[in-house]
Amino acid sequence: MATLNELREKIEGLEKEKSSLVKEVQELKREAEGKAVALECEVAVLREEADTLKRMLSTF
To answer: Model-level pTM?
Structure first.
């Protein structure tokens, strides 16, 4: 059976780890959102390029 001091230390350690993990998850979410926006832009450009090429090919 753990002593009260050991339990307190364990809880404090877990709280610190939780705080660290919450910050890490928030940073990863921001990074993922940035990448999603960048990919949306790339896809839009590629769609436009594909449409332009289709129109160009249909005129020949």
So the answer is: 0.70
